[in-house]
Specification:
- The protein is of the alpha/beta class and about 750 residues long.
- It folds into 4 domains: about 10-245, Rossmann fold; about 255-465, 3-Layer(aba) Sandwich (Rossmann fold), CATH 3.40.50; about 485-585 and about 665-740, HAD superfamily/HAD-like (Rossmann fold), CATH 3.40.50; about 590-660, Alpha-Beta Plaits (2-Layer Sandwich).
- It is about 40% helix and about 20% strand.
- It has 24 helices and 30 strands.
- The strands form 5 sheets. Strands 5-6-4-1-7-8-9-12-11-10 form a 10-stranded mixed sheet, sandwiched between helices. The protein has an 8-stranded mixed sheet with strand order 23-22-21-20-19-28-29-30, with helices on both faces.
- Helix 10 (about 295-310) runs parallel beside helix 11.
Length: about 750
Amino acid sequence: MNAPEPARDDLYVDAAYDMIVVSNRLPVDYLQGPDGETTWKSSPGGLVTALEPVMRAADGAWVGWAGVADREFDPFEHDGINIIPVPLSESELEEYYEGFSNDTLWPLYHDVIAPPSYHREWWDAYVRVNRRFAEAAARAASPGAVVWVQDYQLQLVPRMLREKRPDLVIGFFNHIPFPAYGIYSQLPWRRQVLDGLLGADVIGFQRAADAGNFTRAVRRLFGYATRGSVLDVPGPDGEVRHVVARQFPISIDSAGFEELARRPDVQARAHEIRESLGNPETIMLGVDRLDYTKGIRHRLKAFGELLRDGRLSVEDVTLVQVASPSRERVETYRQLRDEIELMVGRLNGDHSTLGHQAIAYLHHGYPREEMVALYLASDVMLVTALRDGMNLVAKEFVACSFDDDGVLVLSEFTGASDELRQAILVNPHDIEGLKDAMVEAAHMPRKERARRMRALRRRVRENDVAKWSSTFLKTLTGAGIIASGVPDGLDAAITRLARTDRLLVALDFDGTLAPLVDRPEDARATNRARAAIERLAATDDTRVAIVSGRALESLKEVADPPAGTLMSGSHGVELQLDTGGVTIDLRDAELAALEHLTRVLDEVAAGVDGAWVEWKPAGLALHTRKVAPDAASDLQRAAKARVEAEIPELTVRGGKGVIEFSVRPSDKGEALTRLRQHAGASAVMYVGDDVTDEDAFAALESEDLGVKVGQGRSLAAHRVRSPEDVADLLERLAEAREATHGGPSRWP
């Protein structure tokens, strides 16, 4: 049976997240206590380590399967991360995951090392499950949110998301290889998969070759124009989107692995491992999932021939092979396990002695501490994958080798080989060449080992997993990971700006000075931000302006600005300058359009719980912040389509949880220009969080400073994370401004 959809539509009503990660599995494992209660345990991996900082910074949510078939779980919070489980049935697990993902796509994308299987019912399940993931993400994402989809199991999600939520910024990262067109073209659903991926704004791959394979497939099948890593993808309305497809090689938490390796208890365990193996002169180590792409058979064959020919002796060299269980319900993997275990048994029978075992074969996984101890105990790391997107085991071994000792033998068919050039690079299909590399590694002089390892470690340290995620997100949004506080570059810009003669500090209100709230009338600036504004307003040659989409009366009520503050409401339609507010005298045609607009929005919003219409001097706003995010998006689209059909001359703008219609065109950019002229400012700082603030950022000049609050694409050159960081920013500016322009302001 199919997994049932969530029974309640209100599960996600209050879950409006600015950052969403979508992956097949959640970063937690389900555990059932002895009395039947549900508990969750973190399953930290490289991806979690990379994304945890940005998830916390953006109050993000993780969408994925909980690892239990035929079970539904409500959204919950675990260790500071919001978790949104997606249900899968047992049949979907067989068809979508074990079938299409791992018996169709996995072998196809790994150069058909094993033959792929093509079944239409598997494809149907893949489509159905991808849609369920996309719908869960659409429900959870706030307007303009960043959604980062992970890996080959969810390649249709970007397009499905874009069709449902065109406001989102969508990224996709493919953790496995992408094959050459001659191989990829075998897939019966090749166009659908490419079209699914092209729904993203940025598509990331492990290697430049993978990105090139993808781009060539798009050209062959769709004929879209490409310029380097940029693809021109036409939308349904004829407008062309620019999609970036390029390499972002993933990495590891190198500092975390080195910290573990330096722990005395882990080092003691490494000595125990060597002693248990008889203290051989050389320990060679292989660590892999039991998968036909990992080249385990080639490694065993080469090692067996070296023992047979006497080039290595069982008294001097032991091979430890960790082969963690993988996809054991798939027939190909069951056959592989039987074959590997038969080879290990034969080689041990042929070459082991009573005191020395040729191969220590371990068919189970280990916790991270034990794996680090194994790395420390080993002298040579064998990575002989026939095809691998990256292979993080190679990087883990390097990170743990803090004494600059150890040798890495690395397949040239791994993504890691592009970066780790000081390894001994091998073609694992060339058994004679592999044997020579293993002998070279076993007998390499200490000085040469140290030279190579130092170079490898420098590369792994400089390109860790945090840099990977930051680089991808910076390409996607222009922001990267936004840490709390004021970044050094922004701090320097504040110091420079504070020296200007006449400064205008213009600030958005909701989401910038005040945290976003469900009821707009409850919004208030943080105490620190308000105090900093008062300091700035009292400083010589400094003016403060609050620029908002709110009507001016509403803005005055919630902002309670200090005396002398300039005000802009209704996206620049209303201005309050030193001479008082600007009167809005609407013409007869504008009044008629406003009356018509009122009828339309009242009808559209009628019967939708949480939706309400706000009157403004020259327009109306339809608020949807309290509506479930997917329903809110549908409601905004319906309102926009009807207004454009019936009253096409209106100005339309979207924002966070709101869509606004104005009978008199204006925007925050025009407002900022008028405020600058009125104040006679020689430089301006503008801070805002919404898409409507982009007009103001566009109006800034070279000597000005733009600061975006939060994630999302922006023209602003600088970022901060939250209103608390805006307060920090304003405090620093006030202090710097007082130091250079102290005393009461001389401006009128």
